[in-house]
Design the sequence.
């Protein structure tokens, strides 16, 4: 017997996931500033939460969680320039993933989302720093984004397979593969 | 979700496809920025001179300050200048269509432009 999925339960789940996303985002910043030369650039670790929310709750909550965690993470960590990069990458990748959800399986969706995330970050970097030469970084960033998206997708699929979230049915429009 | 395989072969294929498509697009776009043929020198937005990149020469331009450009080997660079920030001399040489060097104090810009027909070889 399952409780109905009403707004309160959605909000509670969304809040918990938002906190997880913020923690992942802060780890993300630490790893990224250490490994990558581009300022404000992120490996998309927190995108796994976006993926999860897209499949379990819906598009609106995914977008809201993305905005909230970007804002709070920027305030907490002090990396305010990273805010624009996160917002641009995160929101665009969520929208693209939502559009692809009904066509492709979760891993392919996640790969596409990761690549789109990185491409948007490069575009934002070019606009903000006014150096079109940053586009030369795109090949390596695309590969990194694809691999990151792949790993996040595999992890998310594993979570969905092993852990039963019966109280939250899957989003109606996804394609099962 | 069903208790089926975690990673399908099509997933790996899709990842590689995305990587190849994106990098392929980038390479295609980059190759269209080919080697340029003429350097257009503008001062205050007005076109001052069009110098062919194929003949080695030096060109002096006077304005608020003096710039001396040098063309050699299909490349153009700012040889020397007496303007306060020496950015333009440190920039190096350019030869690709679309690239530019700017001397802001002197309000001068050099831009490389190509011509419509691609020359396969050039003798003389």
Sequence:
């Amino acid at each position: 017997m399952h409780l109905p999925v009403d707004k309160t339960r959605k909000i509670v789940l969304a809040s918990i996931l938002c906190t997880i996303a913020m923690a992942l985002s802060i780890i993300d910043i630490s790893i990224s500033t250490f490994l990558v030369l581009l300022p404000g650039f992120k490996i998309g670790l927190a995108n796994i939460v976006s993926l999860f929310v897209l499949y379990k709750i819906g598009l609106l909550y995914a977008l809201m969680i993305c905005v909230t965690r970007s804002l709070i993470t920027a305030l907490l960590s002090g990396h305010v320039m990273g805010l624009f990069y996160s917002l641009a990458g995160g929101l665009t990748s969520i929208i693209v993933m939502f559009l692809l959800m009904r066509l492709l399986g979760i891993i392919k969706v996640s790969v596409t989302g990761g690549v789109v995330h990185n491409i948007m970050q490069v575009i934002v970097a070019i606009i903000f720093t006014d150096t079109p030469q940053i586009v030369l970084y795109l090949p390596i960033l695309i590969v990194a984004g694809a691999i990151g998206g792949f790993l996040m997708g595999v992890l998310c699929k594993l979570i969905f397979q092993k852990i039963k979230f019966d109280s939250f049915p899957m989003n109606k429009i996804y394609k099962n593969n | 979700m069903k208790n089926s395989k975690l990673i399908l072969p099509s997933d790996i294929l899709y990842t590689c496809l995305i990587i190849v498509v994106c990098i392929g697009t980038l390479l295609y776009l980059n190759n269209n920025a080919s080697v340029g043929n003429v350097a257009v020198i503008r001062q205050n937005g007005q076109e001052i001179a069009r110098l062919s990149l194929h003949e080695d020469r030096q060109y002096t331009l006077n304005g608020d300050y003096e710039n001396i450009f040098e063309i050699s080997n299909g490349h153009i660079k700012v040889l020397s200048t007496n303007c306060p920030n020496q950015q333009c001399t440190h920039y190096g040489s350019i030869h690709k269509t679309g690239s530019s060097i700017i001397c802001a104090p002197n309000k001068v810009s050099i831009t490389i432009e190509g011509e419509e027909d691609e020359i396969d070889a050039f003798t003389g």
In short: Chain A touches chain B at residues 104-105, 107-108, 111-112, 115, 119, 135, 138-139, 142-143, 146-147, 149-150, 153-154, 157-158, 160-161, 170, 176-177 (CB under 8 Å). The CA atoms of residues 70 and 86 of chain A lie 6 Å apart.
